[in-house]
Design a protein that fits this description.
Distance between the termini: 54 Å
CATH topology of the largest domain: Leucine-rich Repeat Variant
Radius of gyration: 24 Å
GO molecular function: adenyl-nucleotide exchange factor activity
Shape: elongated
InterPro entries: ARM-like, ARM-type_fold, Armadillo, HEAT_type_2, Hsp70_NEF-Inhibitors, Nucleotide_exch_fac_Fes1
Organism: Vannella robusta
Pfam family, one: Fes1
GO cellular component, one term: endoplasmic reticulum
CATH class of the largest domain: Mainly Alpha
Number of strands: 0
Helix content: over 70%
Structural class: mainly alpha
Strand content: under 5%
Number of helices: 17
Number of domains: 2
């Protein structure tokens, strides 16, 4: 059973060397000292430790296997939590993309809208979307893999059909990550802007400040990337909604993000005076 750790895992060699150094150092003595010969058994122990700790790739393979074959939803969640810890490292994220994103993609829609859907299943979907958004974050290599492996249509399907706001929020995080410095992603989302704008409008009317803030951030990035999305946002009457949040939200972060989104929309209609007329 894999349990998520609160920090990224070191690889086997790093961990073994660290432990060896801590247990065999001469730190209490700050003066120069003569090193004594170590017992060969110490080195044999070190080699055994190095060989016993699975590499990140081996751990990811096991997580993928669990997602594919283990029916237990708790095990799937644990596997996704471990994957999330691992892919914080951009090189490991790229390794996962090479291994294949198919099982994580399937987990993104696990039991979605099925009769046996439940909170655990929704958490599986939420965690899978989180893993995918982390992989895409400022990572052209993994962004390319996400596009080529057909993940974006799944994201749009989630935005259209998901009934769980936390799942929707994490799916929007994928949109946000795939919008920045990713022209192919920008074009794809512009082609599906109606679904995205409808979803954002729904979230902007949420009472959850975290969801509102995320919607503002995603809208700003999309509008910065594509003029057509700015036009769609204005036509969908998002300006008054953003203005309401900027002026009246009790959450400072929401006010700030709403203001930034409005500034991005203002560039579409040339100046703030025109924007105020639209609102």
């Amino acid at each position: 059973l894999f349990v998520a750790l609160p920090f990224p895992l070191m690889n086997g060699i790093d961990f073994a060397l660290l432990k060896f150094c801590l247990e065999h150092n001469d730190s209490p003595n700050v003066q120069e000292s003569v090193l004594t010969e170590r017992d060969p058994e110490d080195y044999a122990w070190l080699q055994k430790v190095m060989n016993s700790i699975p590499s990140p790739v081996e751990q990811m393979k096991k997580c993928i296997e669990i997602l594919s074959t283990d029916p237990d939803e708790g095990a799937k969640i644990n596997a996704l939590e471990l994957l999330q810890d691992l892919v914080e490292d951009i090189d490991i994220a790229n390794d996962l993309a090479i291994l294949g994103l198919g099982e994580v993609s399937k987990a993104m829609v696990y039991k979605m809208n099925e009769e046996n859907d439940n909170e655990q299943a929704a958490k599986v979907r939420m965690m899978a979307c989180w893993v995918m958004s982390t992989i895409a974050q400022n990572n052209p290599t993994s962004q390319d893999a996400i596009i080529k492996q057909g993940v974006l249509p799944i994201v749009i399907a989630i935005l259209e059909q998901s009934k769980h706001q936390k799942v929707t929020q994490k799916a929007l995080a994928i949109v946000s990550a795939m919008t920045r410095d990713c022209p192919v992603g920008q074009t794809y989302f512009a082609q599906h802007q109606e679904v995205i704008i409808t979803t954002l409008k729904k979230l902007l009317n949420s009472e959850d400040s975290n969801l509102v803030m995320k919607a503002c951030v995603v809208l700003r990035h999309l509008c910065h990337a594509k003029e057509s999305i700015k036009t769609a946002a204005i036509n969908a009457n998002l300006v008054p909604v953003l203005t309401q949040h900027m002026d009246n939200s009790e959450d400072e972060s929401v006010r700030e993000m709403a203001n930034l989104a409005l500034q991005e929309l203002a560039s579409r209609v040339n100046d703030k005076e025109t924007l105020n007329q639209v609102s």
